[in-house]
Amino acid sequence: MKIAIFGSNGFLGRNLSYYLNNKGYDIFDYDVQDRTEHKWMKYSSIDIMNIDSLSVLENDYDYLFLFSGKTGTKSSFDKAEKVLEINILGLRNVLEAIKDLKTRIIFPSTRLVYKGSNDSTLIETSLKQPLTPYAISKLTCEKLIYSYNNFFNTQYLIFRIGVPFGNLIDTSFSYGTVGFLKNQIIEHKRIKIFGDGLQKRTFTYIEDLCLIFSKILEDKIPLNETYNIGGFAYSIIELAHLMKNSEEVEITHENWAED
Asked: What per-residue confidence (pLDDT) applies to 248?
């Protein structure tokens, strides 16, 4: 079995590459940078915006994990053109490159495609209301994958992910909200929360996420479906109190910034 990971220098990509390599899988790592700092990787540079660069897919990989792309909430407004171009057209280029192959594409979407709610019990058919260019791009990418499945029988799995946290490679970095709160504790002995902090998120430990991805390779997850990834549902204020770990750490509430 041959597995390609696009975006292997990013948070999800490098953790999954590390996890699957330790499980003995034959992994080929790609990203837009000229090189990687991770010595275990069989790494090559690739640009999903360059059709010629995608000729590596003629190797007919069994699975392609597509983690390449732009992320961000406010930043996706500031750089909306790039977010939409790279996420949507980049995916389209990849789909074109594999449409006549047997490669199955694994795509990470986001729970941000759903209408916001303090109730975390979302199901896949819950109301969609993406509010940022990033979330809009992800929902559009889902529809694009469905269309290639319908027309070319491209096999896929889509996972709507909440907030991943943790790090399998070292302990110095954690992604997103958890990492943000952790850095505040380390640097300022304070956690600053906007508003009342009652908004809920689903937090997924990175090893649990990698375990789910590995089950795909064991044929334990039916193809051509879209799944929510589960995890731990906490409000921001609950998470802050869980992470506080000391009476010296203060939790403060501030008004939302205008933007």
From this structure: 83
